[in-house]
Amino acid sequence: MSNSTFLYKKNGDLFVFGNNYSGQLGLGDNKDRNKPTLLLQEKQSEGNNKDIKMISCGEYHSMIYCNNGDLFVFGYNYNGQLGLGDNINRNKPTLLMQAKQSEGNNKDIKMISCGGFHSMIYYNNGDLFVFGYNEDGQLGLGDNIDRNVPTLLMQSKQSEGNNKDIKMISCGYQHSMIYCNNGDLFVFGDNEDGQLGLGDEEDRNVPTLLLNNKDIKMISCGGYHSMIYYNNGDLFVFGNNNRGQLGLGDNNHRNKPTLFFNNKDIKTICCGRFHSMMYYNNGDLFVFGNNNDGQLGLGDNKDRNKPTLLMNNKDIKMISCGSYHSMIYCNNGDLFIFGSESNKNKPTLLINDPSIININGISIDFEWSPDNHKYYSDSFKLEIKLLYLCLKRIQNLTQLKIPKFVIYEIIKFI
Questions:
Q1: Bridge partners, residue 169, by sequence
Q2: Would the pTM of this model clear 0.90, i.e. be above it?
Q3: What's the domain range around 320?
Q4: pLDDT digits (tens, 9 = 90+) for 310-335
Q5: Which of 82, 353, 355, 412 has the most C-beta neighbours closer than 10 Å?
Q6: Co-location of 359 and 390 in the same domain
Q7: In angstroms, rounded to a whole number, what is the distance separating the alpha carbons of residues 362 and 145?
Q8: Are residues 382 and 362 in the same domain?
Q9: Domain count across the chain
């Protein structure tokens, strides 16, 4: 849910474009870009390999986490959402922390998430830190005071008998959701339109249990609405619906999770600020909600309050909803964009590039093949080498005969 776009490629190049009002593109200025512009080449040298692991984009700020443990932040910082201890904007990637401080204090970052004006960092050791705007309690710290440094919200691994490891986090414009491995779904922050699903319109400034269900497959926070999708096919929606973004056929808000429909064929869901997209395994892509800027891609600027078929394409690999624009990325490398970033109300081809592996923090899986092995990061190639050495070691110690074609396939990638 951002006004800008980040494209990360297999060769380590990171391209950015879109709104740059607060320097959220990290290019050293505040000028918007209307075409992909190189921000950095991560593979600068063998000795300085900062392969990117995660990206997250807020409304006007951005975060980049690298494999070497460095976390960079930039963009709007009036509310402290960069976590740098001040409220000064940054228009270049600025080091917030080096996560791998030592072998004995390894706080590897597992997840990062940018909301409208707040941020979250979740570590492998179970610590969840929050910072930024907190007027509606979206940091969950029990007050409404902004934080300009990462502040501990919870330690998930409280004990062996009470292990609430976090499985998913999602930040909306001014509200947040946390889903734990034990099935607990916590919500907090702005609830003016019922986007917390608690049956009222009162904000919460502490994580509040919405439900416990281990069957949740996906959660997604839009600007002021939320979605929960279950393994059994149930899709629940709640929150603001003034543009039809809940898809229920009306424009009435819902302050409780409301069953949209049951369909086990949904592959992914995505919420923008006031619009939503759903992609099915059979290739159907449905859109609904706000369409003032053509972000539904339907060739007009009329809102839709029911799911409307945009296209059927089994070749879609990823969908992404920005604040007022949308993107579709296909297996053949075609990247389509529509809405405010492109001034187009139909999916329009921006580029064809099969080497893109991450768009605005959404990782894109790609097939292993001899044709694309040259795009793998050095760190990934190292992992393959270690796998190869381990297999050879096992083979020597146990006399296990590993088929030659397996070894051959591995060698092709290193």
A1: 178
A2: no
A3: 4-366
A4: 999 999 999 999 889 999 999 999 99
A5: 82
A6: no
A7: 30
A8: no
A9: 2
